[in-house]
Amino acid sequence: MNPHPKMQGALPPDEASRHFTPLIQPDLFQLYSRRAARLHALAEGHDHAAYLHWAARVTEAQATVLPDAGACGPLAAGAIAHAGRCIALLDRLIERLAHDIPAPAAPHLAALRGLAAAERLAAAQALAAGRFDAVPAAIAPLLWAALSLQCATAARAAPVPADGTAEPPACPVCGTAPVASLIQTGAHHGMRYLHCPLCESAWHMVRAKCSNCGSAADLDYFSFDTAEATVRAESCGVCRGYLKVVSLERDPHAEAVADDLATLALDDAVAAEGFQRTGFNPFALPG
């Protein structure tokens, strides 16, 4: 792992004054399709190829069972979990994934299918409340996929948050910690957006400041490659937190969830330096 020079808080040219979209909510079908393709591509030659391919399969299933936005109800992870609508989506995901399932995933899918409705609901409620250690790690990503699908659909039918200029450390739509930040291209070229692993929204935050505490005093960037790596870990010496930065400028095919999942070894290395991750990946939930 290579640490790269400290950044002392200078913003990229004109970012502070440029017009920007505070919140981006990409089309879910396109988002899931892009993520699945990226996961499959990153799996080639990867030490954890089987799991990356499985994550791609789950993502492809999400794209095929998108619920009707009008039936989503209020946007709050806890409320959605308690309402139980995500359990019907879970059944549909299981049905999609049951065809030609990889052998290592078969027992976990069978275990999830065998859970009583009340147990599934309790597990979904635990995830919504952030009690990740209450749900077996092997089935938690599938439950999260259903909960996330319901929340993401609801988010696209909900009013945009009123304070669009705020740059909070957690999602302004549903309050979830980000999976990573993404340096954009196109209409938002060079701008940083944090991506929510629950409602799949992305919100703007200026670069060269900690995405967790907002300090620009002591940032370092770590990667296994060079300073120009597509994925780097941005660490803060003030709050001792870190989050990855994924750059579309350096690889236009990159995707926040996929590239973060494929670089979990970098998390281990940064954690060994004494930093704590301030977000999480939906396919590698904490606890």
How does the SSE layout of this entry go?
Elements: E1 2-7, E2 23-24, H1 28-43, H2 49-64, H3 77-83, H4 85-97, H5 106-114, H6 117-128, H7 140-157, E3 180-183, E4 192-195, E5 202-204, E6 219-223, E7 231-236, E8 241-247, H8 256-261, H9 264-272, E9 276-277
Parallel strand pairs: 3-8, 8-9
Antiparallel strand pairs: 1-6, 2-5, 3-4, 4-5, 6-7, 7-8
What do these coordinates show?
A hairpin with a 6-residue loop joins strand 4 and strand 5. The chain has two domains: 2-25 and 165-277, FdhE-like domain (FdhE-like fold, Alpha-Beta Complex); 28-157, FdhE-like fold (Alpha-Beta Complex). Helix 1 (28-43) packs antiparallel against helix 2, helix 3 (77-83) runs antiparallel to helix 6 and helix 4 (85-97) packs across helix 7. With 287 residues, the chain is an alpha+beta fold. Strands 1, 2, 3, 4, 5, 6, 7, 8 and 9 form a nine-stranded mixed beta sheet that branches. It has helices at residues 28-43, 49-64, 77-83, 85-97, 106-114, 117-128, 140-157, 256-261, 264-272, and strands at residues 2-7, 23-24, 180-183, 192-195, 202-204, 219-223, 231-236, 241-247, 276-277. It is globular, with a radius of gyration of 18 Å. The chain contains nine helices and nine strands. Helix content is 37%, strand content 14%. The protein starts with a strand and ends in a 10-residue tail after the last strand.
Give the CATH topology of the largest domain: FdhE-like fold
Shape: globular
Residue fraction in strands: 5-15%
Number of helices: 9
User: What is the N-to-C succession of helices and strands?
Assistant: EEHHHHHHHEEEEEEHHE
Query: For this structure, what is the CATH homologous superfamily of the largest domain?
Result: FdhE-like domain
Percentage of helical residues?
25-40%
- Give the CA-CA distance, first to last residue: 25 Å
In total, how many beta strands? 9
Rg value: 18 Å
User: Which CATH top level class of the largest domain fits?
Assistant: Alpha Beta
Query: What are the low-pLDDT stretches, counting only 5+ consecutive residues below 50?
Result: 4-17
Q: Do you know the CATH architecture of the largest domain?
A: Alpha-Beta Complex
Rounded mean pLDDT score: 88
Largest sheet: 9 strands, mixed
Structural class: alpha+beta
